[in-house]
Amino acid sequence: MATPVSARFSTLAIVAVLVALLAAIMVAGAGPAYRLNLVGLGGAFSLIRWGAWLGLAALVLAVFVGSQARRIRTRRGSALAVAAAIVGALPFGIACAM
């Protein structure tokens, strides 16, 4: 049995939220990881760089999912997409401000 369209976009919205959270953890955790000697300075900057790219990917995915969820009028997918867009934009903005 095929899954409904709304369920597919809700699943994609959850994926976007998880990717955005991972990006935020990478950017926010780079400093403490360096201070605790878990990574070197280059590794900390790599965490910030890749966290920024993941944040941008989450933002793009959230905009796509949000537009599709809005088109088919699903509230859950729209709300998750907005949350993913906000959380995904933060790591990208923080990393680009450095």
Question: Which features does this protein show?
Answer:
mainly alpha, single chain, elongated
How are helices and strands ordered from N to C?
HHH
What is the distance, rounded to the nearest whole angstrom, between the alpha carbons of the first and last residues? Answer: 49 Å
Q: Tally the helices: what do you get?
A: 3
Described by strand count, sense and barrel closure, the largest sheet is: none
User: Approximately what portion of the residues adopt beta-strand conformation?
Assistant: under 5%
Structure in words:
- The chain is an all-alpha fold.
- It is 88% helix and 0% strand.
- The chain contains 3 helices and no strands.
- It has helices spanning 5-35, 41-72, 75-97.
- The longest helix is centred in the middle third of the chain and has 32 residues, at 41-72.
- The protein starts with a helix and ends with a helix.
- The model has no long low-confidence stretch (mean pLDDT 88).
In short:
The chain contains three helices and no strands. With 98 residues, the chain is mostly helical.
SSE blueprint and pairings:
Elements: H1 5-35, H2 41-72, H3 75-97
